[in-house]
Amino acid sequence: MPLVSVKNVNKAYKTGATEVHALRGVDLDLETGEFTAIAGPSGSGKTTLLNIIGGLDTISDGSVVVADQDISGLKPRQLHELRLYQIGFVFQAYNLIPVLTACENVEFTMLLQGVPRDERRRRATEILDRVGLTDQMHRRPAAMSGGQQQRVAVARAIVTKPRIVLADEPTANLDSQTGTNLMAVMKQLNEEEAITFLFSTHDQMVMSHARRLIRLHDGRVESDTTA
Amino acid sequence: MFDILRIAWRNIGRNRRRSVLSAAAVAFAVAVLCFSMALQQGSYAQMIHNTVRNRTGHLQLQHVDYWPDRELTKRMTGIDTLMTAVADTPHMVAAAPRIQTAALVSSDDRTFGATIQGVSPEAETMVSTAADKVITGRFLTDTDIDGAVLGSMLARNLGVSAGDEIVFVGQAADGSIAAGTLTVTGTIQSGMSEIDRSLVIMHVRHVQTAFSMPDAATEIAILLESDRVRSAAHDAIADCLRAVKAEHVAVVEWPTVLPGVEQSMKLDWISGLIMYVILVCVVGFGIANTYLMAYLERIHEFGVLLSLGMRPRLLSMLVYLESALLTLAGIATGLAAGVPIVMYLNHVGLNFGKQAETLMASYGLSAVVYPQLSPLVVGCAVGIVGGVTLTLALYPAIRAANLKPVEALRHA
Ligand SMILES: Nc1ncnc2c1ncn2[C@@H]1O[C@H](COP(=O)(O)OP(=O)(O)O)[C@@H](O)[C@H]1O
Ligand SMILES: [Mg+2]
N or C, which terminus of chain B has less Cβ within 10 Å? Predict the structure, then answer.
């Protein structure tokens, strides 16, 4: 059983009279340990696909199984559990809670999980060290650079040891050098800690880091290549 | 939970000026309400004070069947025993026996209907302000058995003044004719024309004899330290009465004797409360608007929180906590500022000035009012402001509870 199994998924958004088909018959399997990029131009359906896999959005048609659970059958409460325990998220920007320090941001998901305070602090410190942010621990997001903020977001996403981390254009707001560094951090986590990453991008440089590249176009999988 | 509280607190600090303004609006509303309600309470206290001192006393002893027909046949007897029995009641300042009845009074050529009030002069002076209202001549003393103090208009109508004689004729308690001669010692002016036109104050002993009711009285007016101890004193006196087996005597409180005064105060209080709720709603909508803005600005952030697996209910609580903390901070500030001010005014009194005197007097008030703070006042002020604001703050919290993560995330 693959970690993620997307079968013939259609997603249509209705806005008034018009219907936008964001995804048209997408099939996709992901195994544990993958480092996979979803590439495609703006509007091709990358965000929609990631949101669906992450249990944030519903599908119109088809089936999605994540970590052995058929997502379309889950109640909102179960989707929250799925996100809280099985999935890590990194968004394009404004990932962090502005009033919390880097360390507290990383602790936040553990707080929601009810992890005791001392353990939270220990694990957050460890992970921040892992992404090279020991000296930024007690800074708030506003006092950090974009790259540092994204690294905190990655740290927060992986600290709960989720089955998969979904990152929607994590480097889109970074300059290319910082973006490359972030990709390097993610790849290292993938290789050393076997964390599964699925990220979207429309950046050639980022695609080149991926071990598997899925190209989306107009809501269809155009190509799926493994390096 | 504690951490959520901390996050809420820090969020309040994000837009410091807006938060301070919201809290200040709440604080201002609480302080203003405390002040105006305390002022109302102060004026009620004054009205009560005037009422009990002018006429009723805080409590009255009456024959159990005296009220409301007030017939002489329903009178109390054994007055000395009763006076002695209640003399040591806690909170009691003074007690005075009275007989209220009616008679015709005549001078040489004129006759008028009169309200007879038999009093025990020195005791009466302790209980009521009747003696202070004498405008010509003097009040009765205990030895003025045949003296009388007349309402100023009655005296004028009769054409008598201090030193003149008048005659009264009435029906005694046993049905026989009660009559006698009185020497006017003075006249009084109460300001209330129905009283000034009819009142005849005479010695209770004289009334007892003339109206064939020895050792009897229709009421014993009791003055207490304050109206606050009224019900405690009521109970204590009822116990004393039981101890002397005075089953025919009842303890009646002033609102029973003069229901209109208490009712008008209640009406004033309730219409005041309604006004305050309306005013606070106006302020509250302004505050609620800033609470809503604080919510709308952060929808994307809330989307992130929901994505991370935060329950909508917890998110909603976070949003509500922020508003609630601000409101509570405002209430605390309002009390911290308002209470000392009101207490100070309670000490020195609030003078409305000479111009207001006539107007205030028509409500039974003097120009200086002492605002009175009480748990009721603070409770109502906090309750109204807190209730309105915290209710309106539910709106963003409810919206947060129904937020869809994807839609929230798409918010720029
Ligand atoms: N909530 C929505 N309502 C209407 N249309 C939407 C909504 N979300 C996405 N779309 C449309 O679906 C398509 C795919 O969008 P998206 O998944 O965001 O693409 P990408 O992330 O690749 O840029 C686009 O045409 C977009 O306009
Ligand atoms: Mg997108």
Answer: C
**How many Å from the N-terminal Cα to the C-terminal Cα in chain A?**
22
Provide ipTM, 2 decimals.
Answer: 0.93
Report the alpha-carbon distance of residue B328 to residue B314 in Å, rounded.
20
Three-state SS at B271: helix
What is the Å distance from ligand 1's center to A43 Cα?
A: 6
Q: Coil, strand, or helix at residue B68?
A: coil
A48 lines ligand 1 (CB under 6 A): yes
Domain match, B238 and B138 both: yes
Which residue's CA is the nearest one to ligand 1's atom 13? A22
Residues B274 and B377 in one domain: yes
pTM of the model as a whole: 0.82
| Residue nearest atom 7 of ligand 1, based on CA coordinates | A13
Note whether B10 and B89 are same-domain residues.
no
Where among B223, B247, B271 does a domain terminate? B247
Q: How far apart are CA B384 and CA B29, in angstroms?
A: 9
Domain that holds residue B6: 2-52+261-410
Based on the fold, state whether residues B230 and B89 are members of the same structural domain: yes
How many domains does chain B contain in total?
2
Q: What is the pLDDT of residues B169-178, one digit of tens each?
A: 999 999 999 9
Give yes or no for residue B384 having a pLDDT over 70: yes
